């Protein structure tokens, strides 16, 4: 993980979002310094996705302000959007397009020059290991490959801030390892905020932790400060009001995943999805087997 220079790159200042009398989040404040990988934790319905959508400009706050790279998202929305890559959970792609067509489309939409678009497509295809499926229709791809396409699209314009909502949701173990390695690699040069239910990801990737519960920040500090002499799992239960529950009773398989159905107010925005990327040598996953079988049946080198 990278060292930070102390300058806040992602900042929430007193954010609140009300739906009638219901407060999805209330007075949420935190900052992520340049070069940090920060994990954003909380139970289902705690306000994580609502906060991310406000930070990225997809929702307007009822109160407070969001800042990215020193820019007020409310008043400098377009300029701020050029600085970030946002991966909401399960966001849609254009299924009738191929990955190559999709990347060309988004390069054009973002105003990249043709030569620059080609250069960046070559770079993200290599980075996200899309060579085998580059000219296949997206609707024919497995979930892991679709997520890699989403990541490639988000990285296309070289943002220096990445905000990801549940980036490993629904992935198999090989794919999870790929995305963790990719995030670690990206964390060397970028500021990253990750919303997750998977406590193992905090230990594997993050150097900063923010915990929300019932729409409020209940912890903001380092991983070691959160543990405070106990396990990360026990600390999570303590911070979210379940300190007396045994892990096996409160949330089976909590160490592996604390995920469940999102609340109605925390459904992700409709943009690019979470993603996996193959950086390590590993036995062929379902994705690789899928790519090989579709290549042999459809014909044509990819």
Structural description of this entry:
Helix 3 (99-109) packs across helix 4 and helix 4 (114-127) crosses helix 5 (143-155). Strands 6-7-8-3-9-10 form a six-stranded mixed sheet, sandwiched between helices. Strands 2-1-4-5 form a four-stranded antiparallel sheet, covered by helices on one side. A hairpin with a 2-residue loop joins strand 1 and strand 2 (22-33). 44% of the residues are buried. It has eleven helices and ten strands. The radius of gyration is 19 Å and the shape is globular. It has 302 residues and is of the alpha/beta class. The two termini are 34 Å apart.
Provide a short characterization of the protein structure:
This protein is of the alpha/beta class.
Question: Which SSEs are present, and which pair or pack?
Answer:
Blueprint: E1 8-19, E2 22-33, E3 37-41, H1 48-55, E4 63-68, E5 71-72, H2 77-83, E6 84-87, H3 99-109, H4 114-127, H5 143-155, E7 161-165, H6 173-186, E8 191-195, H7 199-205, E9 208-213, E10 216-221, H8 223-227, H9 232-239, H10 247-250, H11 286-298
